[in-house]
Fold:
Amino acid sequence: MTCSPWRARPLPRMSLVAVKRAAPSQATLAVQIQPRASRNAVAGWVGEALKIRLTAPPVEGAANEACLAFLADLLDLPQSQLEILRGNRSRHKLIRISGLSQEEVYARLKVPHTTLAPGGRGKG
Structure:
C-alpha cells in the first residue's frame, strides 16, 4: 500500500505552557458593594472580597456602572477591560479584569489584604 497524499496528518502537540503564555493575562476580583454611600471609597477587605462604597443607587444598573468606573480608575485601566461575571443584581460581585495578572491587581489596589477583621468592623 502506498501512502495517500490526502491522508490526514496529526497536528503537532502543543504544551499547556505554550497555551498559557499565549493567553492574555486576566484576573478576577470579588467585591462587595455598598450603594448610596456618602462618597466613593474602598472600605477594605471583608473576607476575600474588596468592600467598595459607592454614591450611586442600586437602580437600573447605576451602581454596576459606578462600580466598574471606580475600579477602572483605581486600577488605571480603561473600563472596557472590566466585566461583571456574576452578581449583576447583587451586592456581591465577581469582576473579570483583562490585561492584568492577579498579583498586578493586588499591587495596584494598594489596599492591605488584612484591612478589615472577618466581622467587617475594622477592629483587630
Q: What stands out?
A: The first strand starts at residue 26 and ends at 34. Residues 115-124 have pLDDT under 50 and may be disordered. The first helix runs from residue 16 to 22. Helices lie at 16-22, 62-75, 102-109.
